[in-house]
Specification:
Elements: E1 3-15, E2 18-27, E3 30-36, E4 42-47, H1 52-61, E5 72-78, E6 87-93, H2 96-109, E7 112-114, H3 120-128, E8 135-140, E9 145-148, E10 160-172, E11 179-187, E12 200-209, E13 215-222, E14 231-233, H4 236-247, E15 253-256, H5 263-273, E16 286-290, E17 293-297, E18 302-305, H6 306-315, H7 326-334, H8 343-352, H9 355-390, H10 394-397, H11 402-416, H12 427-435, E19 443-444, E20 449-459, H13 462-469, H14 482-487, H15 503-527, H16 533-553, H17 563-586, E21 590-595, E22 598-602, H18 608-621, E23 628-639, E24 652-656, E25 661-664, H19 675-690, H20 695-709, E26 720-723, H21 736-746, E27 756-761, H22 770-773, E28 774-776, H23 787-804, H24 810-814
Parallel strand pairs: 3-10, 11-15, 13-14, 15-18
Antiparallel strand pairs: 1-2, 1-8, 2-3, 4-6, 4-7, 5-6, 8-10, 9-10, 11-12, 12-13, 16-17, 19-21, 20-22, 20-23, 21-22, 23-24, 24-25, 26-27, 27-28
Helix pairs in contact: 6-9, 8-9, 9-16, 11-16, 13-15, 13-17, 15-16, 19-20, 19-23, 20-23
The protein binds a DNA duplex through helix 11, helix 16 and helix 21.
Length: 826
DNA sequence: TAATTCGCTAGACCGA
DNA sequence: TCGGTCTAGCGAA
């Protein structure tokens, strides 16, 4: 009698004074709700030794509100693995609202409480270990019925849904599938932009299976010319209705690009103005605060905002683009050029009905939806894995911070092991933690100059492997055993139990092993010619979470924050890397550089076999889960001297046998340097490393300087990009980018905090400061640039440090070798 | 409601 | 006008 379906969403509704869990699932192309009445909201209360019985009696008598229903329905004493002598009571309620009242009353009474702030639906998923995106097996109870749902403020009464009562449910493996629809609006332009201020002109729709395959595309508009690929509807009202119908066609996912901040809010406003409804799955799209951002939550159906996905991929280093607009992403991630159509052009194309312009607009509108859909198809497999690990919906995992992912994982696994979670820290505790930072990694000062034959070694997953090897966990810290103190004391003086596995290392070990297995499987399949994207996504999901655990332990707002654990981890890391350095030196290598987990060995008279032998020797002496690996051999590498003297850390360039260049930390990889400086630097590094020749780069730099002086360099090469991190008035030091913004704002331009700014240093007044001459790119004419600035403050600093290593000076670059006056070109 | 620390550099700011 | 200090941003791991 069991049934199977794929789990999409979990929520709750209040029904006859009882909070009930509702799960949105999909099976064989049909979506419906499951209803579980057997799970109740609860929290834990801590009592002293032998005091729980008395407290339990007291709580059972208490009333947590006006009605007679506002009482605890059950108080149980439960064993807790981590509360020591204290006794723990689990207090359950009929309704979430009663729990909310109760926790306030407990606070007033000074009753110690735990896990009181975990949302009910999230609690349900964690406790039952259900995995959104994966299968569930449930036992139906009674017939399918049509019921009204009351899912908070956005719900609409009078609409009935297919719903099945269930008696039990558990997770199961099921291949993922689900129908998705991506949509995108184009709106009419106005000088003063407001959400919903002007009509929506066009909608594009792309639907199909979320992981790709055959798709249905539509673009529709109204009151404009009918052209190929464009449907003409009666008016905006019909456009909205048609969009709504598409969104309600049995979708599991709805995909947007920035739908959290634009499309849904726009539709809502327009619908209000046109006096009609805009409902998805029978409810208003609901605006939810997510950190500093807004998110749009739909009832049941998972709203996937591809822009949020890209932001997360950017944060975790999976992609690296300067901007995250859909055009840049399309090009950088999929290698597809995408033309941008600006708001004014959109309106013009629509109003004029000009066939060419309209065709371009239709194409643009459709490609937005296609690209958003593609991003979802590409990255959802990975988020599904994170959803499985953390038991959170895809709506959550595509928007969560990495700390949230780790915390959800820990909550889930702690519950499984009977460990009560620590409370979130209070604000003053957060401040305390923040003021007391943890000492981090060791970075060895490099030997400046050009080096030949370098072997780069690094530790695989250094921090996770240390945490596992030394069993570093809040629950194993400074245990009572004398033996552990003797055997497993860290350089910090803290020690960790060697007898019982800690919560954190246990989880990490499982994930690390799993990841190695997946990686090997993926590699094997790839060798056989099959690029298995799901395998890759799985191991990448594990990588993200694995790498975030150390950061989480040192994160001041974490429930499981542990200064001792985080600090012990880095202390051991410093010890291991320094030991490796001395071992390498003893083995006859010269160690040129090292940062956190890496070692750069100059091979001198040694062979590759010697490096392999060295690796073997080191690995034999390391704990089992730790491993030093070979990153690669490089024929040349360069480190440069700092302005202040001494060699610069975190800045180097390597070239391998095949001539491939790896540039790290240099201006070339920084977005806050202009292109001409970056490209010149790259060419110089390339020449210096590939041929070891040094005369050519000097000639090359002189040519660049000459072009700059002659005003030949185009704007695009001179743009410097910087993020506006706060409101202009909040800066104490007004840098060039802030000055440029303030000038633009005076001209009436609207710029939000968090925008990427492109600015140029113009000719301006020679005597004035750099900030005075900074202007946003859009206000600068071709040729209007301060050549002096770009030569002295961009190109020369980028190349001088490299060429200095070969005996050249600034003077050699700016003139024929003879020193001339500073401003000789003016 | 935000993962961590280490490190480099530019350019404003400020007092002599 | 000079030089030291501070603010700000971004990258490495």
């Amino acid at each position: 009698m069991t049934q199977k379906a794929i789990l999409l969403d979990a929520a709750y509704s209040d029904e006859n004074e009882v909070s009930v869990i509702t799960l949105y699932v999909t099976s064989k192309g049909k979506n419906f709700w499951l209803k579980d009445k057997n799970f109740h909201p609860y929290l834990y209360v801590i009592a002293g030794k032998n005091e729980s019985e008395k407290l339990a009696e007291q709580i059972m008598k208490m009333s947590f509100g006006e009605g007679k229903e506002e009482k605890a329905i059950k108080v149980q004493k439960i064993p807790a693995a981590n509360e020591g002598e204290k006794e723990v009571l689990k207090v359950s309620f009929k309704r979430v609202s009663t729990l909310v009242n109760a926790r306030k009353i407990f606070s007033e009474l000074g009753v110690e409480k735990r896990e009181y702030d975990i949302p009910y639906a999230k609690r349900y998923l964690l406790d039952k270990r259900l995995e959104p995106g994966n299968g569930v097996e449930y036992v139906p109870e009674g017939e399918e019925e049509l019921l009204g749902l009351n899912d908070g403020e956005g719900a609409v009464s009078g609409i009935k849904y297919s719903s099945i009562k269930i008696s039990s449910i558990k997770p199961m493996e099921m291949p993922f599938e689900g129908k998705a629809t991506a949509f995108d609006f184009e709106t009419k332009f106005s000088q003063k932009f407001t959400i919903g201020g002007e009509p929506i002109l066009m909608t594009s729709i792309v639907s199909g299976d979320v992981l790709g395959g055959k798709q249905k595309n539509r673009v529709f508009s109204y009151e404009t010319k009918k052209i190929k690929g464009l449907e003409i509807l009666k008016d905006e009202k019909e456009l909205l209705r048609e969009t709504q119908d598409e969104l309600n066609a049995q979708n599991s996912f709805i995909i947007t690009y920035n739908g959290d901040n634009f499309d849904f809010a726009y539709a809502k406003e327009r619908a209000k103005k046109l006096k009609q409804e805009f409902l998805v799955n029978g409810a208003q799209p609901k605006s939810i605060r997510k950190g500093l951002d807004n998110a749009i939550k739909l009832s049941g159906i998972q709203h996937i905002d591809a822009y949020q996905i890209m932001k997360l991929m950017q944060r975790t280093g999976a992609v690296n683009t300067v901007k995250l607009d859909i055009e840049t992403v399309s090009e950088k991630v999929f290698g597809e050029e995408k033309e941008k159509v600006y708001p004014k052009e959109i309106t013009e194309a629509w109003e004029s009905g000009d066939e060419k312009k309209l065709t371009r607009l239709v194409d643009y509108n459709l490609k937005d939806s296609i690209t958003a859909f593609k991003i979802a198809s590409e990255f959802l497999p990975m988020f599904i894995e994170i959803s499985k690990l953390t038991s959170q919906t895809l709506f959550e995992t595509t928007r969560n911070s990495t700390s949230q992912m780790v915390e959800d994982l820990l909550l889930k696994e702690a519950h499984f092991r009977g460990i009560i979670a620590p409370n979130k820290p209070k604000e003053n505790e957060v401040t305390q933690r923040t003021m007391n930072p943890i000492k981090g990694a060791f970075v060895k000062e490099p030997i400046a100059g050009l080096h030949e034959n370098i072997a780069v070694l690094d530790f695989a997953s250094l921090y996770p492997s240390i945490i596992i090897s030394h069993n570093i966990s809040p629950d194993t810290l400074n245990c009572k055993h004398k033996e552990c103190k003797e055997k497993n004391t860290t350089p910090d003086g803290t020690w960790f139990c060697t007898k019982e596995k800690g919560l954190v290392p246990e989880i990490l070990e499982k994930m690390l092993k799993q990841r190695l297995k997946l990686k090997a499987e993926y590699k094997k399949k790839k060798k056989e010619g099959h690029d298995d994207k799901v395998l890759f996504a799985k191991q990448w999901a594990l990588k993200i979470v694995l790498n975030s655990v150390y950061g989480y332990l040192g994160y001041p707002r974490a429930r499981w924050y542990s200064r001792e654990c985080a600090s012990a981890t880095t202390a051991l890391a410093r010890q291991y890397i320094q030991e490796t350095i001395s071992k390498a030196e003893k083995s006859g290598f010269e160690v040129v550089y090292g940062d956190t987990d890496s070692n750069f060995l100059k091979m001198l008279d040694k062979s590759r076999a010697d490096v392999e032998k060295f690796l073997e020797k080191v690995n034999a002496e390391l704990p089992e889960t730790m491993e030093l690996e070979l990153d690669g051999f490089y024929k040349r590498g360069i480190f440069v001297t700092k302005k202040e003297g001494g060699a610069a850390k975190k800045k180097y360039a390597l070239m391998d046998e095949k001539g491939n260049l790896k540039i790290v930390g240099f201006e070339y990889v920084r977005r806050d340097w202009c292109n001409i400086a970056k490209e010149t630097q790259k060419r110089v590094i390339e020449m210096v490393l590939s041929e070891g020749k040094t005369k050519e780069p000097v000639e090359y730099v002189r040519k660049v300087i000459k072009d700059l002086k002659e005003g030949k360099v185009p704007k695009s090469e001179l743009v410097v990009m910087t993020l506006l991190q706060r409101k202009p008035k909040d800066y104490t030091a007004i840098g060039p980018h802030v000055a440029a913004v303030m000038k633009a704002q005076e001209r009436g331009k609207k710029i939000d905090v968090g925008s990427m700014l492109s600015f140029i240093i113009t000719k301006g007044n020679t005597k004035s400061s750099i900030s005075d001459k900074a202007e946003l790119e859009e206000y600068v004419n071709e040729g209007d640039y301060d050549a002096d600035y770009y030569i002295e403050n961009q190109v020369l600093p980028a190349v001088i440090k490299i060429l200095q290593e070969f005996g050249y000076s600034r003077e050699d670059l700016i003139s024929g070798g003879k020193q001339t006056g500073l401003n000789s070109w003016n």
